[in-house]
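Researcher: Structure for this, please.
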Amino acid sequence: MDDWNKQIIDEFRANDGKVGGQFEGAPMILVHHKGAKSGTERVSPLVYQPDGDAYVVFGSKGGAPTHPHWYLNLVANPETEVEVGADTVPVTARVAEGEERERLWTRQKELMPGFADYEVSAGDRQIPVVVLTPR
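Model: Predicted structure, token format:
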């Protein structure tokens, strides 16, 4: 885990899910995931969108041309857990497709317009939308 992510994770855990800086006021979640190849347990701090009782995260990777590792790990190992506020919740991850994906992605771009920039930067790569449903 790089130092930047570690600082966000530490701040998240120390403040019941709230972080400052560029993420001030943004809904944050810590997504646990197991390496698809290595099996190593990892944690990624991500912005999320609530959708009913589910948490929706977006594989934008800042507009990079490749998918983030956490996304590939969740596809390979969808049974995991997330930290939301001070709670840890077991979830099952699935990739949203079709109309559901479009609804969630459009809403995220409305809530946080920077995601539209990521879409442009990503080029031909469709940014994955992942729904984390509590078990």
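Researcher: Any notable elements?
Model: The domain at 3-134 is CATH 2.30.110.10 (Pnp Oxidase; Chain A). The chain has a mean pLDDT of 96.
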